[in-house]
Structure formats: C-alpha cells, structure tokens
Amino acid sequence: MKKVKKKVIRKPAKKSSRKKISLKQRQSKKELVIYIYNVVEDEWSFLSSIQPIEKRFEMINDCNDSSECYLFANASEKEFIYISPIEISGNFKNYFQLITNNKKVDIYVPQKRTGLICKDLYTDKQLFGDLVQRAKKYKKVKLISYATSPEFLELKERMIQLGLNVFTPEAPEIENAWTVNFFGSKSGIRQLAQQSRAVEPDFIMPEGVICVGKLDAAKIAANTYIREKGVVLKTNKGSGGHGVMIFREGELPRDYKSCEKRIYELLSEDGYWERFPIIIEELINVDYSAFGVNPNIEFKIHRNGKIEMLYYCVMMVTKEGKYYGLDIHEDVLNERTAARITDTGYFIAEKYAEEGYRGHFDIDMIAGKNSHIYVCESNTRNTGGTDIYKLVYDLYGEDFFSDVYVLNRNNYKFKGQSIPSFEKLLNVLKPIVYDKKKKEGLIISSAAPIKEKQLLYTILGKNKKRAYQLQEEMFNLLQQIN
Question: How far apart are alpha carbons 106 and 372 in whole angstroms?
Fold first, then answer.
C-alpha cells in the first residue's frame, strides 16, 4: 500500500519557473477556451424518465440553476467562452470577474433548450456559426465540459469537421468513452470493487446485489430489511439524492408480505425504478452526530494518464441521502482516515486510467461505526466540489489545502414573503463578503436560486472556527431579510 502524506501539496514555484509560467500565459492567447455546463445532458437518461412531466421539468430547472456556480470552475482562465443552459445576469458575471480577476467571459445560451445542450448548440445555426467563426481566429480550441456525454463528443467531431483544431484534455477518447457511464454507475463501481477485493482489501462497498425489475427488488429488499433491520435501494443512475431509498428500523412493516408490498408501492411511484438496474445494499450503521461520516476525494486524470489527487473533503448529507454541501481542509479528516481514502482513491484512479478514462472524478464514501470505510459511488465528471476547488486554488494557490478552511452549502432557505434581489443580498451581506486583502469572507455561488428562495454560498476562513463564525454572522445578517 502506498504511503500517503497528510499534506498533499506541491512546493511553491521557484523564480525560474515563474518566467516559464509567464511565457505559457503569453502562448495561451493563441488558445480559445470553451466550457460547456452540460449537467442535464450528463443525467439525461435518469431525468428523462421522471414522471409526471412537471416533476421532471422542476428537477431539470434545479440542475440548470447551478450554471452560475461553474463559472467558478474557470476561475483561473483570463478569457473564455461559457456555454450555459440559462441566461446569466450581467451583474453576476461582473461579480464573478471581480472575485477572480477574469478579464473577459462571453456567455452563449442556445435558443432551443431540450436538455441536451451540446446538441442545442450545434443545431443553433446562428449561435454555432458565430462560435465557429470566432474559434477560427485561434490556433487551437480547448473544449471542456462538466461531463463527457455522447452529444459532447458529437460537438467536438462537428467542430473538427469545420476545420477547427479542437482538443479535449478532460475527456476520454471516443473508444474509451464507455468508462464514463460504466464507472459512473452504481453497478459499474460495484463490479470493480468485487474484481479488486483480493489485491486491494480496503476497497470495500456495502454488501449488496444488483437486480432488474421492481418485483424482484421488493422481494430482496424486504428480506434484507427484516433480517438486517434496515436496507438501502439505489437506481443505477440518479440525480441530487433522487433514486435512493433508505429504510431504517421501524420505517417498514416487520412481516415479510406487508414489507414487500410497501416497498413495491414506493418503487411504483417513479418510473425510473423500472428503467434501470436496482442495487439493494445493507444499511451501514453510522454515527450521524460525528463530523466526517461522509468523506469524499477528487482526482484528475490528465491527458497523458498522469493521476493527480486534488483534495479530500467531508460531504454534508442528510439521513435520506441528499447532498447539501462540503468542508475542505487538510484537517477535516484524521491522518489515518485521510491516508486510507487517499490510498483507495489512487487504486481506483489507476484502474480508471488503465481503461482510458480522462478528466475529473470523485469517490463518495461512508464511515461505519465498525471503523470500516465503504465506497458508495464514483462520479466520473466535474463534481459538487470541482468549481469550489478551482476557485480556491485560484485565490490561494498551491497551499490552499492548509491555508484556508472552505465551507460550502446549498441548503439555506429564505423564510420571508419577499424574494431579495442579488444586489440587495450583496448589500445586506457586505460586512462579511470576500475581502481580497484579508483573504477571507463569503462568496455567493449563484444568483439564479435566489428566486426560489434558496442561497448557495461558499465561506472562506483561516481555520474551521473562523469559517463557522462567518457563517453565523451571515445568518444574523440575513435576519434583516427573513
């Protein structure tokens, strides 16, 4: 097993290397960066199966509302084009530029909005034509996306056919694109765990089986629940906590037939349970009062196959399995846990790299009361922390992991009748907004969710105590609105 240092950072660049960086910056002007926020496209197989259609559109809108967050995934880019599924206000764009020192970002929004944004882009003759004409002024085009979808690969191919020199450093080649859906599915990562048990004993998942069909799933789940006093059901693909059912002791009938009937009724409420394989797992006994129950680690596999560990964090997850934020710092996990998840993470990353996967991915885990750390799933795409990591790296540099405590949340709800504007919110929170001189404070991640009375934010403090103190100050200031 690999020996892993707790502090996974690189040394600051020497003076000689700074000259090379400035040369690289001069050369980068010959390159056009295009980022596509295709979150719905990535989850389309799941989202398109949701019934009724009103619920489907609600979930699609919720996904798209995060578009502004991923402007920050380009925090280090001086100039870029951002392809967004929704309009982004000029005020938020200016706010992003103020924080990141970005000089120029052009936001393109396709007129047609089917959920498949890459397809919407290349079928929008006017917009796509303008994009291609602009791209032809550059020697090469770096095309980046939230996820590698079939539509993204089709977009790349069409741009190449039009004479553009396109490269996709964060996407696998087309012959290896199967790795995205396979390793990014609940069944795929489970198969990898089973194959790896002999060579990597720390790579464990909750005991479970994969089946097809609601009837069999209900029978197996009922049997597991009665025997183990708990059970978890997952669809092979999910979105934002949807596609997961967690049943604890006392939440289902204790006799087998009644339990099976109730589970079947619940599975029948959403069409996606019939559409995908269903994973039935044992319920891991955890201490929800303990900090660090849900560790997570993110990697990037570079175009040449080099593996880079970006950060580890603690995810905030409800008892129902819904994600609502994370904390990033080298001390959020003890040294033993950090070393263990890093070692398991590198093992998984090596397997992905061998099969040709390229780009970002993370691994969600859960720490049981029995001291075991279980792998839950892997997300083969940009993640809930990618935009935050890139922003903080841009603001603090290579030592960010030790120099700043990052607190990110998406679960704050405004309680008042009126909905505040983004500008009013910034004014109310002015005492704690991010200060470049102090290098701490609050950053509003997105303006779009405010209209739904929801606040997405990131707080940066010199340590955990300071970050949570700033959050408390934010709550007090927001009482003016609530």
Answer: 47
CA distance 284 to 282: 6
pLDDT digits (tens, 9 = 90+) for 177-205: 999 999 999 999 999 999 999 999 999 99
pTM of the complete model: 0.91
Give the C-alpha separation, 74 to 348, whole Å. 26
Query: Do the beta carbons of residue 239 and residue 272 sit within 8 Å?
Result: no
Residues whose CB falls within 8 Å of the CB of residue 71, separated by 6 or more in sequence, listed in order? 82, 88, 93, 96, 105, 387
At residue 447's C-alpha, the angle toward residues 450 and 38, to 5°, is: 110
Tell me which fold the domain 20-168 belongs to: Rossmann fold (3.40.50)
Is residue 449 within 8 A of residue 458, CB to CB? The reply is no
pLDDT per position as a tens digit, 40-80:
999 998 999 888 889 899 999 999 999 999 999 999 999 99
- 174 neighbors 155 (Cβ within 8 angstroms): no
Strands of the sheet with 278-281, listed across from one edge: 208-211, 278-281, 230-239, 242-248
Q: What's the CATH superfamily of 295-478?
A: ATP-grasp fold, B domain (3.30.470.20)
Q: Is the peptide bond before 52 cis (omega within 30 degrees of 0)?
A: yes
